Every structure is written in structure tokens, then in C-alpha cells.
Amino acid sequence: MWFARLIAWCSSPTEVVMMRTTRILDDILEREGWPTYTEPSAAYPDRGGPTKGGITLTALRMYRHAPNTPPRALQELKREEAMGLLRSRYVQCNGIETLERADVFAQVVDNSVLSGPYQSARDLQRAVGVTADGIVGPQTRAAVEAQGDRVGHALVAVRALRIVGFVQAHPKQLIFLKGWMRRVLSFLEEV
């Protein structure tokens, strides 16, 4: 596995985490169609609003602490800033960055970008059977470690069921269901 080779090559645990995170975020940008910019329309009713590579205008405004950031700024967003935004808003929050299992970490980060870090942490907690408070803390990490390889499959199931429920509640989002499910189910190949 690529992660084992990476550990052997790197000199420090922090370097390993940074490289692992960079690879995951690169994969997410690729899955999200970077550098394509999209705007919602009747045919494409994305509830997230204008988006570039999975990054919404709202996320960019929050990251920059600039509520009046125009859509053009999102269109012009550079990859380096996009990576910083993804790392800050979807990895270095809610305890997500403390997960040690590479397979679980990758899936939780992907879910964080797709559904937000709070929901991602709650999905993980449901998958491992601890209180779903939206913060990956000592109890969640201990449950992940104790349950081993089962966690990845359980997390795929929790995510898939939640997404189906979301689409049932918001029928206009049906257009995205196939892609979302393909994305979630792709993690079965990694676990």
C-alpha cells in the first residue's frame, strides 16, 4: 500500500500526515472536477451554490473571512489556496486530523468535503457505535482502533444510507445521487 511506502520514506510522523493529507485532498479535487466552475440552474440544482472543485462560494467566503467575496473570486481560485481551504475547513477541525488509520482518515476527509466536518464526524461515530456529537475525540478514536477493518465498511453503509435519506427529503437532488453513491462506494475498494 502507498501509505506504508510513504512512512518508510518520510522522516517524521508530521511529514507523513501532511503528505497523506495532500494526496487525499488532491484526489478530492480531481473527483470534484478541478478546475471546473459550476453554477446552479434548473437542470443542475446544486444546493451548495456556485462551486469550483467541490469548494462552494460560501466556504471560500468563510475561509477568507470576507462575506462579500464575489463569485468571480471563486472562478479565479488557485489550486494552492484551494488546498489550504480544504485542509483548514475539512481536515484540521472536529478532531478529524487526529485519526490514525489511513483508510478511515481518507474516507472521513472525503465525507467532510462532501457533507461538512460535523456530519462527517457524526457518520464515523454512528459507524463505530459511540455518541454522535460531531467531534472525533478519545472515545471515537478508541472505537475506531478497537473495531479495526470493520470501520471502513460500516462507514460506507452509514454514509450511503444518510445520502439516500437526504435525497428522499430533497427530491431535486436526485440528479446527484448516482455520483454521490459512486463516490461513497469507491471506498469499499480501499477497505
What does it look like?
The protein is mainly α. It has a domain at 101-191: Up-down Bundle (Chitosanase, subunit A, domain 1), CATH 1.20.141.10. 63% of the residues lie in helices and 3% in strands. The protein has ten helices and three strands, in the order ααβββαααααααα. A three-stranded antiparallel beta sheet has the order 1-2-3. Helix 2 (13-31) packs across helix 5 and helix 7 crosses helix 9. The longest helix is centred in the last third of the chain and has 20 residues, at 150-169. The N and C termini lie close together (12 Å).
How many strands, which pairing sense, and closed or not: the largest β-sheet?
3 strands, antiparallel
Task: List the strand order in the largest sheet.
Answer: 1-2-3
Low-confidence segments, given as residue ranges, are 1-11
Content of β-strand: under 5%
Overall structural class, as computed from helix and strand content, comes to: mainly alpha
> Which fold name corresponds to the CATH topology of one domain?
Chitosanase, subunit A, domain 1
Helix content: 55-70%
- What is the CA-atom radius of gyration, in angstroms? 17 Å
CATH class of one domain: Mainly Alpha
DSSP E strands, number: 3
Mean pLDDT: 92
The helix/strand series, from N terminus to C terminus, equals HHEEEHHHHHHHH
Q: Quaternary arrangement of the chains shown?
A: single chain
Shape verdict: globular
Q: Give the CATH H-level superfamily of one domain.
A: Chitosanase, subunit A, domain 1
Number of helices: 10
CATH architectural type of one domain:
Up-down Bundle
Measure the end-to-end span. Answer: 12 Å
